[in-house]
Amino acid sequence: ACFHQIETRDSEIHAYLSTNRERALEQAARIDDLAAKGEPLPILAGVPVGVKDVLTIEGLQATAGSRILEGYRAPYTATAVSKLEAAGAIVLGKLNCDEFAMGSSNENSAYGPVHNPHALDRVPGGSSGGSAAAVAAGMAVATLGTDTGGSIRQPASFCGVVGILPTYGRVSRYGLIAFASSLDRIGPFTASVRDAATVLGVIAGHDPHDATSSPLPVPDYSADIDKGVKGLRLGVPSEYFAEGLEPEVRSAVEHSIDRLRAAGATIKPISLPHTRYAIPTYYIIATAEASANLARFDGVRYGFRAKNSDTLSAMYRRSRDGGFGAEVKRRIMLGTYALSAGYYDAYYKKAQQVRRLLTEDFLKAFTEVDAILTPTAPTPAFKIGEKVDDPVSMYLADIYTVTASLAGICGLSVPCGKSQEGLPIGLQILGKHFDEAMTLRVAQTLE
Ligand code: GLN
Has keyword Ligase (predicted)? Predict the structure, then answer.
């Protein structure tokens, strides 16, 4: 049914960069065999999933949305994907995304934009636009995306689906093509909160292949999901309801807050005073790390290589020039500048100090509240082409998401209403480090 849906809808949505029908049908047949033998079935038996094309699967393409990886086939499988497959999920294919996950609209993919299933002239959000759109259009039951500064939560909000940003370290990054290693996280997109809890439970956990993955045990994320919000303290930060927030988004979010109050939660106004420094801090740290991570794409080891170069250095330069798109080049230059001798203290070191202050804002708030409620994005999905020529206005679309990324805390986006034009609006629920269960419980109350 999902392949049928891909055939009928994906020519206009363009969520998939590749599908692997035979491989998927083989996986499905193995599940059928188990069922026929009366063997116990794993938790995701037969569930069709899609995977953002920044995650590797042995033998399959991994483009990261970039020309520089054209033709590259991965030699091993990302842990999050192996865990899905071990749980019986069936991988349908690889999903479109912004090049190296850099973007907020999916317009930076070298393979063309993704269209929002709710309005084809609109962006699906980014960078995991294909992952969000595939679930919204019924072209997968669950998908994996990645979130470095909002790339799961913001497209989930634009496409009207659930998207989880797990705590940093909760899900192994082994097999994820790195953008900004101290910020990158992998998480699920699904149509319901309960499904999101199930998929998170499968992909979370320690992995000896990723030294930053946490040894903490993985709880049963569905156990407390129906407990409701009675007696919980939910914080509403004034900084997230200021200038730039579209009135329709504000009223949908406020309506959800009212519903949570009516369900027995205590709503507390709070302040996260360093919020206004988050965008510049994020764009210094993310670009600095990206400039280092992307140094490996030299035309020798992976994918695309420029032809007919006279010298080795010309081959490097021409491969990188032809292989990377404009946004990736912009970030390599910004990041290289921020890390260079003479500027390091003024930019990178300062950004790390502000990152600590932003984290402390959250740690302090979480002594008073159990979770924090904000809009996921200041506007519903914008039109394709509307912001492409204005990177700064594109960066501002991340204003409510980059803070949790910098602080390492968890969060999710859950649909909370629609604009007059019928475009989905998302509510962001932020939780303490490793308290995903709390955010799921609050989200479930609204479903
Ligand atoms: N939009 C942000 C950026 O362009 C976040 C991207 C992401 O989370 N991968 O960096």
Answer: yes
